[in-house]
Amino acid sequence: MTTILPNKPTSPVNRKYIPCILSLIFSICLYGQCPTDVSLNINRQGSSVTVKPGTSLRLEFSYKISNSSSCPGCIDQILVGLDNKYLDCVYSGMPSVCPNRRTGTFTKTINAPTAPGTYKFYFNTTQDYSCKANLYKPSTYIGSITVPAPCGLKAEAQLNLNGQGNQITVKPGSPVNLAFTYTVANQENCPGCITQVLWGLNNQYMGCIYNGTPSVCPGSTNGNFSQQITAPAAPGTYQVYIHPDQNYDCNPAAYKGSVYTGTLTVQADCQQTATVSLNMNGAGNTIAVKPGTIIQMEMDYNLSNQSSCPTCFSQLLFGYENQFLGCLFDGTPGVCPTGSSGRQRYQFTAPAIPGVYKIGYNSTQDYSCKPTLYRPEKIMGTVEVLPDCSANATVTLNMNSLGNAITVKPAATVNMQFSYNISTSGGQQRRPLKILFGYENNFGGVVYQGTPAICPASSTGTSSQ
Q1: Mind spelling out the 3-state secondary structure of 122-147?
Q2: Which of 94, 109, 140, 438: CA 20 to 30 A from 66?
Q3: Whole-number Å distance between alpha carbons of 93 and 382
Q4: pLDDT at 32
Q5: Within 10 Å of residue 130's Cβ, how many Cβ atoms?
Q6: Pseudo-torsion of CA 361, 314, 340, 167, nearest 10°?
Q7: Which residues contact 246 (CB under 8 A, 6 or more apart)?
Q8: What is the pLDDT of residue 427?
Q9: What is the pLDDT at residue 90?
């Protein structure tokens, strides 16, 4: 069963105030604000145009204006101007009270300024008895005119060097292909002029890109031009410029480096370089030690290939006197001047015989490090071996002139050279002494046999087996 309820009647009070509420809302909407509106149309092309200097301009203004309810009888004015300069009075009178508006149009003709620039139109409103120029203030922007600078002789170019952009590095005397994409235009006051576009390196004329009568600006004549030159012999940085000229023909004497288009860097062909710095036992590259002292070597190196052989295998070898010690680098280093850098550590035993020993290095280009290629071409430090007055015997070994650790085939001949330094203290009875050598537990031979000298003297020498 459905119960139908009767409609609830609207109370008399509600019916009475509905129109009032609607009227109040409507009044708030209409009587809020009625600002003055002004729009501008210049030469029927909109509010912002670009024109030539002195061009005649027809200015069409459309306006809407009203008074507020607090001043229904006020006399209002609409003043317009160009930047800070007063132009005219668009309206002067007693408009309707908001929300009603007085609308209208106003037309004025002026000439565009002759000086290049952008000029802005403004308006402002006043309440006076009539329009007065001194009441104009540039308040509300409504449009603009732009007067461009008169176009003149123009020359531009994009440059491609060897197909690698507008900045490249080449060797002295190498071929260089220059590809120009140019734009050239005559000035308005000389439409029939014969124009040239010259180019050069720094202040030196090199060629003529264009020679003819181009279009008049803002139009232009475009084209391409290519030329091959030989890079200068002198290393350095050369700027590529173009320069417009107006003559009957291309005139090298008229060239001036005025418009930059690219850079040509000429770099000399650098040669292979090698540098090594040495630090021994943390005490620098010059030390003094006793015979047979263990020396810790730390070497920082840089090795580079010449640009003419960037993929060559290169080695960096080091040693003392003519004795090869090791290989610091074996591979393909970077090309000069950058090269490849690194650090190597090596340990070797100071010679047994007192003296001053030079630590040297050299670089080679072979397929691998070979001890026979070592030469003490550059000296990086010295080791002074001092006489040891402690009644001892020091022996060092060199096998096959390759140091004291080598690899050979079975049954291969090994040439062994021993260096010894022997002394006894003065308080001891001098007795004959033998120094024997062997491998593993096998006897090999006699290095020294005799009565050594008394310290500080020493018995030194070599023995070959």
Answers
A1: EEEEECCCCCCHHHCCCCEEEEEEEE
A2: 109
A3: 107
A4: 44
A5: 11
A6: 130
A7: 153, 190, 193, 194, 195, 196
A8: 53
A9: 96
CA–CA distances in Å: residue 238 to residues 200, 295, 367? 9, 52, 39
Name the residue with tokens 């003519």: 322
Closest CA to 461 of 380, 363, 354: 354
- What is the three-state SS of the chain? CCCCCCCCCCCHHHHHHHHHHHHHHHHHHHCCCCCCEEEEEECCCCCEEECCCCCEEEEEEEEEECECCCCCCCCEEEEEEECCEEEEEEEEECCCECCCCEEEEEEEEEECCCCCEEEEEEEEEECCCCCCHHHCCCCEEEEEEEECCCCCCEEEEEEEECCCCCEEEECCCCEEEEEEEEEEEECCCCCCCCEEEEEEECCEEEEEEEEECCCECCCCEEEEEEEEEECCCCCEEEEEEEEEEECCCCCHHHCCCCEEEEEEEECCCCCCEEEEEEEECCCCCEEEECCCCEEEEEEEEEEEECCCCCCCCEEEEEEECCEEEEEEEEECCCECCCCEEEEEEEEEECCCCCEEEEEEEEEECCCCCCHHHCCCCEEEEEEEECCCCCCCEEEEEEECCCCCCCCCCCCCCCCEEEEEEEEECCCCCCCCEEEEEEECCEEEEEEEEECCEECCCCEEEEEEC
For 205, residues 6+ apart whose C-beta sits below 8 A from its C-beta are: 198, 199, 252, 253, 255
Q: What percent of the chain has pLDDT over 90?
A: 63
Q: What pLDDT, on the 0 to 100 scale, is given for residue 6? A: 41
pLDDT at 12: 40
Q: For 133-173, what is each residue's pLDDT tens digit?
A: 999 999 999 999 999 887 889 999 999 999 999 999 998 89
Q: What is the pLDDT of residue 246?
A: 95
Q: How far apart are CA 377 and CA 357, in angstroms?
A: 14
pLDDT of res. 84: 96
CB atoms near residue 319 (< 10 Å): 21
In this prediction, the residues of the chain whose per-residue pLDDT falls under 70 are 1-32, 389-391, 425-430, 456
Cα–Cα distance between 264 and 200 in angstroms, integer?
11
Contact predicate 266/231, CB 8 Å: yes
pLDDT of 399:
87
Give the pLDDT of residue 346.
Answer: 95
**Residue 360: how many other CB atoms lie within 10 Å:** 24
Residue 80: other Cβ atoms inside 10 A: 26
